[in-house]
């Protein structure tokens, strides 16, 4: 079943009807070619409660799709903890893949980081253009995975800004190739409680510099190992978020 995000103003009182307009209307009517009687679900933008509302298409007119309420599902597709992915800017279009998969796996927000070994350098104009594209990818991935919430993709930060942003988060992890003792990593993850906020710092292709690792350690960010193999920047993020999802899902 197709899933969409709507503003609260598109819903009638008690969710009795919904009107889909704009690009989603075009997608339903002209791309998916859905018909009266077919069903879809929606979540309300900005609503973190996880409510999923199911509708049957009642009418397709020249400007919108009108849905008639079927039922409301209170179950939540979100993880019980908010995972913030701090991602060192990678080369080429890897960031698009990273955002897509991080959203599918349950990340709450994605914060691009400019670090010492980043090859990619973004001025404000380029960053604004990238963020628009990245946010659209986040929304598409949220729809595909039936998320109740569209993760926000921030403007790029320096690592100092990112460390400050994560200051008050409950758990702060940084996979690091020189870290050892995977048993310690397992204990850290197993000790995370539902509801705790989690910061995950991932370096770019060249990894973090020693100075950056030192800065992170000084601010309570715990180096962990992801095993004996060196993972690519896009693989490292998927790995740790997958571990966290497995640990937190259903708790």
Could you explain how this protein is built, in words?
- The structure is a single chain.
- By secondary structure, the protein is an alpha/beta fold.
- The chain folds into 2 domains: 2-73, Hypothetical PUA domain-like, domain 1 (Ribosomal Protein L25, Chain P); 83-248, Alpha/beta knot, CATH 3.40.1280.
- It contains 7 helices and 12 strands.
- Strands 6, 7, 8, 9, 10, 11 and 12 form a 7-stranded parallel beta sheet that branches.
- Helix 2 (94-105) runs parallel beside helix 3 and helix 2 (94-105) packs parallel to helix 7.
- It starts with a strand and ends with a helix.
- 32% of the residues are buried.
How many distinct helices?
A: 7
Distance between the termini: 26 Å
Q: Describe the oligomeric state of these chains in a short phrase.
A: single chain
Identify the CATH homologous superfamily of the largest domain: SPOUT methyltransferase, trefoil knot domain
What is the annotated CATH architecture of the largest domain? 3-Layer(aba) Sandwich
What is the share of helical residues? 25-40%
CATH class of the largest domain, anyone?
Answer: Alpha Beta
What is the ordering of alpha helices and beta strands?
EEHEEEEHEHEEHEHEHEH
Query: What ranges have pLDDT less than 50 throughout 5 or more consecutive residues?
Result: none
Task: Evaluate the radius of gyration.
Answer: 20 Å
Number of domains: 2
Share of residues in strands: 15-25%
According to CATH, what is the topology of the largest domain?
Alpha/beta knot
So what's the overall shape?
A: elongated
The biggest beta sheet is recorded as:
7 strands, parallel
Helix and strand content put the structural class at: alpha/beta
Give the overall average pLDDT.
92
Number of strands: 12
């Amino acid at each position: 079943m197709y899933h969409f995000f709507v503003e609260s103003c598109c819903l009638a009182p008690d969710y009795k009807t919904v009107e889909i307009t704009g690009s989603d209307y075009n997608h339903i009517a002209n791309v998916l070619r859905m018909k009266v009687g077919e069903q879809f679900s929606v979540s309300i933008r900005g609503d973190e409660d996880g409510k999923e509302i199911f509708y049957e298409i009642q009418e397709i007119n020249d400007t919108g799709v009108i849905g008639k309420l079927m039922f409301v599902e209170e179950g939540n597709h979100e993880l019980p903890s908010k995972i913030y992915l701090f991602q060192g800017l990678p080369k080429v279009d890897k960031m698009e893949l990273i955002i897509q998969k991080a959203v599918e796996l349950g990340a709450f927000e994605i914060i691009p980081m400019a670090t010492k070994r980043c090859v990619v350098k973004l001025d404000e104009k380029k960053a604004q253009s990238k963020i628009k594209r990245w946010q659209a990818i986040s929304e598409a991935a949220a729809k595909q995975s039936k998320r109740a919430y569209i993760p926000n993709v921030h403007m790029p930060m320096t690592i100092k800004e990112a460390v400050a942003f994560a200051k008050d988060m409950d758990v702060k992890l940084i996979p690091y190739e020189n870290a050892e003792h995977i048993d310690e990593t397992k204990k850290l993850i197993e000790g995370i409680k539902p509801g705790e906020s989690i910061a995950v710092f991932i370096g770019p292709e060249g990894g973090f510099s020693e100075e950056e690792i030192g800065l992170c350690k000084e601010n309570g960010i715990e180096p962990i190992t992801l095993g004996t193999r060196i993972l690519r920047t896009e693989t490292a993020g998927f790995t740790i978020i997958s571990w966290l999802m497995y640990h937190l899902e259903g708790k």
